[in-house]
């Protein structure tokens, strides 16, 4: 009997400790989560037109409009759904409306939100806001952004939407622990420091304002970016975002940028296309809202930095093989998927797989085609895509979606044909992979020009 009583006491004591731990875990963020920066800080020197104009350009570099403007919505008023593995969160209103936007923010409030992920009430922002990257933004650029959003943007009254994340995952207080574990301290980067000022400027834009790693760097078990800057082979090595593969931006010749020249990268960012490739998915929005309006010097700096990154994966070099082209020209469609390719793809991408320069991208030797993960290819074939209309290349070429025309097996067959023809050599796609991505798409999903 005594032993049983002793065991009961141990269990009750353990439950007491666990309960105390849960209560402490809840209250610690409330007491200490808002520490960092100075919420009462003001913008010294005031706001003039030059600072507002500079802030407008910094907002372009940071691609603020792409996330904070919903389709058909007012500029920067928020409401865009941002997919996460836990459910959708919605971008917030960052216009200077005092009730539903950021009009009541002090400069200190703004700085803490942008670089530290802390709201004015001391609670943590969802890391869909890329504050781990923005921790590198310079003081001058944060000040310019604040000036622009306070004086250069029209206020819009639009309340924030609640996230589509089920409870208890929707509780916000655990985000403080995420921030403490994964967000770096604020360390503004010098944009032109070091022996190569062009590369330094590129690193500042890619690692900081451009937050390229938010999409192109794989995530860890806590959904954190595995690396936030160059120095790790994980950085910019490619990651799946909303069922698209954000491509490897490192120096791999097979599925990275190894075969791209700096001028190709500049052209892609400026126009959304090169002779052999085209922007799609989220990258089309980046080009439309951000990179097409960046200066040539900044685009060159980005390209220079990206080309400095070594390969983290396959270094094979593509060599074109004409055998499949010759077979198709002879009417030989014996290879699985060949007839589907001729019926659905060849009119634009040609039987040679070389496409039409600056119009329909080449499939032969395309890094997206040869990537180990076929998610982007599956998504594009199902949903279609549109090359963005830009100032220098205003024509928006559209590929239709085939989800209502081709079965899962037919899509797998045509993708396997593409991934094994003209010198391409990538892993086979199976119908189950197609079915999984098909199930994730809305009932009507045809890409529209941004």
Provide a brief overview of the structure.
By secondary structure, this protein is mostly helical.
Please provide a written account of the structure.
The protein has 450 residues and is mainly alpha-helical. 41% of the residues lie in helices and 3% in strands. The chain has 19 helices and 6 strands. The chain has helices spanning 2-32, 49-61, 64-68, 107-116, 131-134, 139-151, 174-182, 197-209, 213-216, 262-271, 282-289, 296-306, 323-329, 338-344, 346-349, 367-370, 375-383, 408-418, 431-440, and strands at 81-82, 89-90, 239-241, 244-246, 385-386, 398-399. The strands form 3 sheets. It has a two-stranded antiparallel ribbon. A two-stranded antiparallel ribbon has the order 3-4. Strands 5-6 form a two-stranded antiparallel ribbon. β3 (239-241) and β4 (244-246) form a beta hairpin. α10 crosses α12. The chain is globular. The chain starts with a helix and ends in a 10-residue tail after the last helix. Mean pLDDT is 90; it is low at 444-450.
Write the layout of secondary structure elements.
Blueprint: H1 2-32, H2 49-61, H3 64-68, E1 81-82, E2 89-90, H4 107-116, H5 131-134, H6 139-151, H7 174-182, H8 197-209, H9 213-216, E3 239-241, E4 244-246, H10 262-271, H11 282-289, H12 296-306, H13 323-329, H14 338-344, H15 346-349, H16 367-370, H17 375-383, E5 385-386, E6 398-399, H18 408-418, H19 431-440
Antiparallel strand pairs: 1-2, 3-4, 5-6
Helix pairs in contact: 2-6, 8-12, 10-12, 14-18, 17-19, 18-19
